[in-house]
Structure prediction request, 226 residues.
Amino acid sequence: MKELSELKPLFESLTIRPTFDYVHVILSLFIFGENPDGIGRYRLKDELQIGSGTAKSLVKKLKDVSGFIVVPDEGERRKGHILTEKGHKFFAKIKKKIPLLEKADLTFLKDIIIEPENVNPYFCLVKNATKKIKNGIEQRDAAIKVNGSGATCLVYDGKDIVFPSKFVNNSAEEQKKINQKTLKYFTSKIIKAKVLFEKDDVIIIGLGANPHISRLAALNAALTLF
Prediction:
């Protein structure tokens, strides 16, 4: 996706390559977008599950290189960095592809997730991405790369949410469908977010030891579909 190529300057360095990755940049934009009053790098560090030095480097790059964030001129009342107009515009491009990223209710996912204990699931919606899925290994590996325990991909076929056919050994259509209760759960979440749910949209469920890691897992898996 050409939007990600716009982030390349963030990773350019004459000395040591930054220790943050594309997923940390994209997730930081989601976090800044959710905190219009500002957020500091110490909280950002916790949200992104990175070290203090990495968070400091990321904030500096987002501010000085990309111009995506700024500290508002409010003196002692300032609460941290906020998105600039440029940052909002770039984030809007990302949101067209990933319009939804939020914590999932495990109650509705027990038929989908293997060993559903202590996985703190997050899910995201990736628009028009079915053709990008091969065998799911790339998405799983992307989740594991950020310390997640895995990722599950589901596809909307225009009527039902199904496991991609290439994941399912049994060719019976009923074996590919998720149950109606889970279908209604995801559909209601998407409608509530005022997003159009369309054929070939993909839902990715990220899993990890805590919600922050699960969110990273879901998003990093989603970036493989760009």
